[in-house]
Amino acid sequence: MIKINYKTLLGSFIIGTCLISCVTHYTFEFAQMTLDYRIWSGLFLVVLLLVATLYSNRRMAHEMTQRKQTELQLHEMSQRLQNIADHVPGVMYQYEYLPDHQKIAHFSYLSGRCKDIFEVEQSLILDEIQVFLNMIHPDDLTEWQDTEQEALIHGTDLSHTVRIITPSGRHKWIELSARQNPRKPHQTVIWNGFILDVTERKQAEQELIHARQAAEAANCAKSAFLANMSHELRTPLNAVLGYAQILQRDSHLDTEQQRSVTTIKRSGDYLLTLINDVLDLSKIEAGRFELNAHPCELKRFFAELSEVFNVRAQDKGILFHYHDTQDMPSRIKVDEKRLRQICMNLLGNAMKFTEQGEVCLDTDYQDDELIIQVKDTGIGIPANAYDEIFKPFRQSGHDQYKQQGTGLGLAITRHLVQQMDGVIGMRSQVGVGSCFKVKLPLPILQEQASLQKSPPSFAKVEGYQRLDGETRALQALVVDDLDINRLVLRKLLHFIGFEVTEANDGDMALAVTEKQVFDVIFMDLVMPEVDGLTATRHILERKSPHNRLVIAVSARAFEEDRTESLSAGCCAHITKPISSDILLQTLDTVLSLQWVYQQPDTPPSPPPVSLSAKDLEHLEQALIEGQRTHIFELLTHIKQQDAALGACMENWVDHYDYDRLLEWIHQHREA
Question: From 534's CA, which of 101, 233, 384, 510 has a CA 20 to 30 Å away?
C-alpha cells in the first residue's frame, strides 16, 4: 500500500498555483512587452519552472527513500518473527471460531514446526481442521471437545493435554495452551496459543509413578518382612525374658544365681533393644514415627537410668558418674520412652568405646531446655567421621567395636532429637574421648498439678487388694497357641495372686467365655483358625455384661497393630516380650485394685558400734551415686561386725532395693 505524504502534496499544489498565476500574468503582458523584456521574462519563467520541478522531485525522492527503509524494516521484522516461530520448541498457532457458528473452527495460522509434531505439512491442517481432529486419540477426543467448548462459552483460557496418533503410528502427548482475544458479540473468536510435544515429560512422569509404586511395594514388603521377623524374634525372646523375670522373684536362688539370672535378663534386654532399633528405623523411613508426651518425673527417671549404667560400668571395670543441678525441675512433659532411648543410645556408645577411665552423665535445665551431656574417656572419633556416625549402619572404631550393635543408635537418636525440635552436637578427640550434647525444649509441669502414681515394680509387689468390694481372687484367661507363652504369663500372674485359666486358640476362648466369667482376658493376636481380633469381636458382641476387659498381646510392635487392637474393642495392648512392670501398669489401669508391696525386712540389730556416722554417710553417698563397688566394700566391713545385718543389707543391694537401705540409714542416723 502507497502511503501519501499530504505535506508534499500541499506544497506542490501551492507552487503549482503560483506558477499558473505567473504564467497567466506574463502571457497577458507578454504581447505588450519589448523584445528584450520578453526574453528576460521567458528566462525567468523557465528558471521558476525548473526550480519548482527540482523541489518537487527532491521531495518525492526523499519520500521514496523513507518508504523503502520502512518496507525493509518491516520485512526484517517479519523475517525475525517467522524465524522465531519456526525455531521455538513447539508450534505457535491461531485458532478461529466463526461468529454465530461457534462449532465451525479452523486454524488460521500454524508455525513451521508443525511437521515436527504432527508429521504432516501445516497447509493440510490449515485447509482442513478434521486432519487434526482425526489424530486425537479416540479416548481423549470427547474430553478435548468438552474442554474446548467450556473455555469458549466462559471466555476462559484453554489448557489441555491430549494424546495424538501420527500418520506413522507414533503415540505422542501434546499440550495445547491458548488465550482468547478480546471481542464483541457476533465477532470471530480468535485464540492465540502454543502447542508443545510433552511426550518425554509424560514418559518421565509415568516412570516416576512406576518407580514410586515399586518403592512403595518394596517398602510394604520390607515392613511386612520386619513385622514377621519382629514376631519371630520376639516370640522366643518372650520366653527368655519371661523366665528371667520369674527367676528374679525366686527366693531360693543364692546371690551368685541371682546375678546369673540378672545377666540373662540384661542380655535379653540388649537383644530387644537391637530389634527395636531396626523397627524404629523402618518407622522413620516410612514416616510413621510418632511421639506421645506425658508427665515425667526427672529425678526418678535419671536415677533409674544411672542404676542401669552403674552396673554396666562395674562389669567393664570403669567408673560412671551422674551429676545434675539445682535448677532441674521435678516434672516435665515428654515422651519418656523416647527420652530414655536417646540417653541409652548415647550412654551405650560411651560405654562401648571406653576401655578405661569413666563415663559421665550431666543434666541441666536452662531457658526452658533440658540439657543432657554424655562424656567419656574412650577412643574418640576422627574429625572426618563426624557426619558418617549419624548415618544408618555406619560405625567407627576398630573391628572389635563394629561387631557390637547395629550402627543405628546415633541415626535414630538424631532423628528423635529433631522430632522433639531439639539439637544434638558433639566434640571429640582421638585418644582422649568424646562429648555428646543434646538440647530439648521441654515444658515444665506445675508442682500443683496432680501427681501420677509411681509405676508399680514387679520386684516389690507381692499381691493386690480389690477396691470393688469383692474378696475373691481375680480371674484371668490367657489365650495363646504356644504353650511357653501361656506358661510365662500364667507364672507372672500367679506371683501377684491371680487365678489363671488357659485357652490354646480362639475357638477355645469363645467356648470358655460362654461358661465362665473372667475379670480380664489376655488375647494373643496371631493364632491359627480364629485369630485374636476375631475372637475378641465375637466375645464383645455378646449381650452379656461379663468378659468385657480384653488385653491384646502381640509380638508385632507396629503402631497400626495397637490401633487395630483398640479399634476391635481391646482395652489395652501389650507387646511381647512381656515386661512384668508393664504388665502391672496395664492391670493397674484397667482393673479396680491396689497393689500390696512386700514389707521391708527390719534388720535384726542397729549398726555395729564400729560403724560411725561418717561410715553411714559414706554408705548413703555411695548408694545415691550408684557406686556398687564401694557399696560392697562397706557391706563387707558391716558383715565382719554383724553377719546378719550385713547379709540383709547385701540382699537389698543385690535386688537394687536402695530405697530400703537409705530409709534404714536415715532411721538409725536420727536415732
Answer: 233
Closest by Cα among 442, 440, 458 to 294: 442
In this structure, the number of other CB atoms found within 10 A of the CB of residue 496 comes to: 21
What is the mean pLDDT for each group of 10 consecutive residues in the chain (671 residues)? 52 57 55 58 69 72 79 75 69 78 73 85 87 90 86 83 91 89 74 88 89 80 70 81 84 79 79 73 63 82 82 83 82 86 88 89 90 90 74 53 56 85 89 90 68 62 86 93 91 91 93 94 91 93 92 84 90 91 90 80 61 78 74 80 76 69 75 57
Collapsing DSSP states into helix, strand and coil, what is residue 286? helix
**What's phi and psi for 471, nearest 5 deg?**
-115, -15
How, if at all, do strands 475-479 and 461-466 pair?
unpaired
Cell numbers placing 203: 514418559
Residue 135 falls in which region: left (phi positive, over 0), alpha (psi -120 to 50) or beta = alpha
Q: Report d(CA 197, CA 166) in Å as an integer.
A: 12
Q: Which H/E stretch holds residue 344?
A: helix 336-352
Residue 370 cell numbers, joined? 533440658
In 369-514, the DSSP E strands lie at 369-376, 423-429, 433-441, 461-466, 475-479, 499-503
